[in-house]
Structures are given as structure tokens and as C-alpha cells.
Design brief:
The chain is of the alpha+beta class. The chain has two domains: 232 residues, 3-Layer(aba) Sandwich (D-Maltodextrin-Binding Protein, domain 2), CATH 3.40.190; 213 residues, Roll (Dipeptide-binding Protein, domain 3), CATH 3.10.105. It is 29% helix and 24% strand. The chain has 17 helices and 22 strands.
Length: 519
């Protein structure tokens, strides 16, 4: 049972962050201050309205601009950020947040409870994970520094939800919160402020000199902690071509890469001007299936796809070797990993079985569209290899490769695609709520709600008993394989990279441009 408790600076201050450098004041800080750091990422953002988009290309930028009540620490656990902490009632229905005082928005306004209330209410309407606000009955503001959220029913994932960076529950000025999706001015409380956005080129951010650090912490920690900004500006360039990114890093035109291709990392391992940071696991490589139209609306066809695919071939080619074959829809070693459930249906690579299932589905050579994008090389390669494997069992496959924003937006439509290649990264990092939520609720990625998935999601999000929540994740994983809701190919690793003169860099879910500097 959840009992009344406080999650605040006392709880978070004890986290293991001793390996991270503390902020420096005085002359040493002055020597480190300055310069414009240039990052290259694979795609341009579909939106800079942080709440509305789950795209990594947006997250890399938005989490420099916006902040949330709770963030995630270095290990992915919730920690206070704009909130001092939270008191949760014994029945799990009332959350009382005390706010940090004196926090400034980029327009100079001081943040109050009215801004927080308006931002949370807006998130329930336009948020990329709006389902986290569905249990909310009302939000009140007893004073300028207190927000009280009352739930209709217990929702033990509420703090996990509002702390998630997937589609961050960003706090914005009250006067902006009444605006529709993608209509707001880009104003947050983060360490950098928005400068310019040039489509197909770059976004520029500048240091927010009135940024109010979280003095409850001694140093950076995940997306929270005390953030100290040394760079004058950050330019994020959109460069889908891996070779161009690598060349720019070698020449010094670029200082940080969101992702360095694995062969390039191996080739540059002895280059003293480059530092590489391998991260495993980073994401699930998946093939999402559209249940709303065509052959993929038929469970027997989906089972044929599941039976046909050779995951080792897909992963080896799409990742250049930085992968592991795991069936779980949570990472091994985490609290909600569901063991061997579904393992017997993973990586079957059984063409005879696949053809039999295809016949049973009544498939009549209808064209099946595999949607991939050119911005992420593993997305495209996954689509290419999977398409060939499906052709081998008699599926009439059309591979469509577009840019990332087009692919991302296309998948929100019920027509025009049957399979979509996606590296699902932030959701498994944040735990079970994001993964299960991706396939449930009013806008599941597969477009048709599945009763078994909905039941698992309901149990996960309402039960106060951890054992029940773990059982719900096991039920979810069982249903994912039994109904072939989507295909998990394996776990992907990535390599982030910097020039050697980017000091004190620490790899994480985004390239964080606070607490690092030019040496």
C-alpha cells in the first residue's frame, strides 16, 4: 500500500551521484564559461511544443528549454525538479506539491502554482502521454507555491508519468497554456532559451542568464539536479547522413554527436581528438503493426509476420553489431522484467510455419506497406531486411522510405501503412507505464484497442500492490506475443561522441549541454 510520505530533497539527496563533478564558482568557473557548442542529430524535430511530441529529435532540444515538476535521475528514477517534493495521502488519491520559489520563465515572469495548474490541465488535452492525466479529478492552488492534485482513483504511476521525458509534462506560462497544440511561444524555465528554428538546418539556443538553479542538489543528476551552464549557445544541426556527422566531428565543425555509427566508432577508437561513449541498452528495435486496415488487421497475418522474421539478421544488419537478442518488453534486470513469457514466440524464423499462418489468414496478395525513414539508419535497414524476409514467405511488400517527420506523422493515420519501423527508446527507459501506454488508451500505436492490453493497463495503473502491477506487465507481454500486437526485434545500443575538448560530458538520454564546457 502507498502510505503518506514525502518525496523531496531528503529522499533524492542520497542518490549515488558522486562520480559527477560539482558546479564550480569563482575564477575557475569564469575560465570555463563561453563558446558555442554544435551538436548534430539525425532528424529535425516535428515540434518544439514539448508536451505534444514523443519524438527523440524534439526531446534532445526541448529538455534544454523546458522543465517539469518531477524529472528523472541518472538511474531513471523520479526526482523533484520544479517541485520541492510531494506529499501523497495514504489512500493514494491526493498529491500535494510544494514548488521551488523564485523560478523564472524565459520571459522574465516568476513561476507560480497558476502556471503549473494550467500546464497540467493543458497536458491532459494535448499531451503526448495525456493518459497520465485521465485519473485527475481536480487541481487546486491553495497558494502561489502549492499545487494539490486529487485523483478519482488511485494511480501509482502518476509521479512516473509526470516525470517522464518521453513527451515531457513541461511547465509553461499560464497565458500560453490556453493555446492549442503547436501554437505556443517557446518559453520554459530551463537553462537555455529558444533562439531560432530554421527547418532542414538547425535550432539555436542561448544560455538563460536568469536561470534559477535547483539548490537542493549539489550537482547535475539525470534531467534534474543543479544545472550549471557554461556554453553561451547551443546549435543543434539536423544531419541525417551518418558520414557527414562523422566527418564534421573529425574536423571539429561539430562538437557532439547524438549518435556515432558503430563502424565509425571502431575506426576512430585511437583518435585522440574524439571521445566515444557506448550505451547498451538504448532502445527496443520494433516493427509496429497497424490493426485498423488491410492484412495487419488480421491476427493470423500478424502471427505469420512474427513467425517469419529472423531477428538476428535484422539486428546485425540494422545496428552494425551493437545489439542483443532479448524478447522482453521491459529490460532484463529491471523490476518489471517478465521473465520467459512470450520467449517461445520470439525469433522463430520459421518460414514453413509463417506460410501456413499466411494461408490461414486468407491473405490474397494484397500490397503491404512497410513504412521506414531515412533519418535513422537502423529504421531504414530494419525495413529493408524485414521486407525481404516477408517477401520470402509470399507477402507482396512495398517499402516506403521518407524523412523522419513524415514517417512519424504518417503513423498517426489509420490508413497508408501496415508496418512501421521504430526504435522505441524512452518508453522502456522510463519503465512499464510508457511501454504499456504506447499500446493502450484512446490513441494506441496500432490504432485499434485490444481488450487484453487494456485490462493489463488498467491493473498496472490502478493497483496499489506492486505484485499486481508486475502481474499486469506479465499479462501485457503475454498478450503482445499471443496476438502479435507488434514485433520486438531486439535491443539496440548506441554510441554518443564528442570532441575531446568537450570536458565533463556525461552520456544520457539526450546530449546534455549543462555542466560541461570547452577545455
Amino acid at each position: 500500500m502507498i502510505t503518506r510520505r514525502t518525496l523531496g530533497k531528503g529522499a533524492a539527496a542520497g542518490l549515488a551521484t558522486a562520480t559527477l563533478a560539482a558546479p564550480i564558482a569563482g575564477p575557475a568557473y569564469a575560465q570555463r564559461r563561453g563558446g558555442e557548442v554544435v551538436i548534430a542529430q539525425q532528424a529535425q524535430p516535428p515540434s518544439l511544443d514539448a508536451a505534444t511530441t514523443t519524438a527523440q529529435a524534439s526531446r534532445n532540444i526541448n529538455l534544454h528549454i523546458y522543465e517539469t515538476l518531477f524529472a528523472r535521475d541518472e538511474a531513471g528514477n523520479p526526482m523533484p525538479d520544479l517541485a520541492e517534493g510531494v506529499d501523497i495521502s495514504a489512500d493514494g488519491l491526493t498529491y500535494r506539491f510544494g514548488l521551488r520559489r523564485g523560478v523564472k520563465f524565459h520571459n522574465g515572469k516568476t513561476m507560480t502554482s497558476a502556471d503549473v495548474k494550467a500546464s497540467l490541465e493543458r497536458y491532459g488535452k494535448v499531451g503526448g502521454s495525456a493518459f497520465i492525466m485521465r485519473p485527475v479529478e481536480e487541481i487546486t492552488t491553495p497558494d502561489a507555491n502549492t499545487v494539490v492534485v486529487k485523483l478519482k482513483e488511485p494511480y501509482p504511476g502518476f509521479i512516473a508519468g509526470i516525470s517522464s521525458p518521453r513527451a515531457p509534462c513541461a511547465i509553461i506560462p499560464e497565458e500560453e497554456a490556453g493555446k492549442a497544440a503547436n501554437q505556443i511561444a517557446v518559453i520554459g524555465t530551463g537553462p537555455f532559451r529558444f533562439g531560432e528554428f530554421r527547418p532542414d538546418s538547425h535550432v539555436k539556443l542561448t544560455r538563460f542568464d536568469d536561470y534559477v538553479q535547483n539548490t537542493n542538489f549539489a550537482r547535475r543528476d539525470g534531467f534534474g539536479g543543479r544545472k550549471t551552464v557554461h556554453f553561451d549557445a547551443v546549435t543543434i544541426r539536423f544531419m541525417p547522413e551518418a558520414g557527414a556527422r562523422t566527418a564534421g566531428l573529425q574536423t571539429g565543425e561539430l562538437h557532439v554527436l547524438e549518435a556515432l555509427a558503430v563502424p565509425a566508432a571502431q575506426r576512430l577508437k585511437d583518435d585522440r581528438n574524439v571521445r566515444a561513449y557506448e550505451m547498451m541498452p538504448w532502445a527496443f528495435q520494433t516493427l509496429m503493426m497497424n490493426h485498423a486496415q488491410g492484412p495487419t488487421s488480421n491476427v493470423m497475418f500478424r502471427r505469420a509476420v512474427q513467425a517469419a522474421l529472423d531477428m538476428e539478421e535484422i539486428m546485425a544488419i540494422s545496428t552494425d553489431g551493437l545489439f542483443r537478442l532479448t524478447h522482453g518488453w521491459q529490460h532484463p534486470g529491471t523490476a518489471y522484467f517478465a521473465g520467459d513469457i512470450g520467449k517461445e514466440l520470439y525469433n522463430l524464423k520459421d518460414q514453413a510455419r509463417a506460410r501456413a499462418l499466411l494461408r490461414e489468414s486468407g491473405y490474397r496478395n494484397e500490397e503491404v506497406t512497410v513504412l521506414a525513414d531515412s533519418s535513422f539508419s537502423n529504421h531504414k535497414a530494419t525495413g529493408e531486411v524485414a521486407a525481404e524476409q516477408l517477401k520470402a514467405i509470399g507477402v507482396n511488400v512495398k517499402l516506403v522510405v521518407v524523412d523522419w517527420p513524415t514517417a512519424f506523422n504518417q503513423r498517426t493515420r489509420r490508413e497508408g501503412w501496415h508496418l512501421w519501423t521504430l526504435m522505441l527508446g524512452i518508453e522502456p527507459y522510463e519503465g512499464p507505464y510508457g511501454v504499456v501506454g504506447f499500446f493502450s488508451g484512446h490513441q494506441p500505436v496500432q490504432h485499434e484497442r485490444d481488450a487484453g492490453i487494456e485490462a493489463a493497463q488498467a491493473k498496472l495503473t490502478t493497483s496499489l500492490a506492486e505484485a499486481d502491477r508486475k502481474a499486469a506487465v506479465a499479462d501485457f507481454q503475454r498478450r503482445m506475443y499471443d496476438q502479435a500486437i507488434a514485433v520486438k526485434c531486439g535491443d539496440v545500443g548506441i554510441v554518443q561522441a564528442t570532441r575531446a575538448n568537450v570536458a565533463n560530458y556525461a552520456p544520457y538520454r539526450i546530449p546534455r549541454m549543462w555542466d560541461c564546457w570547452f577545455s
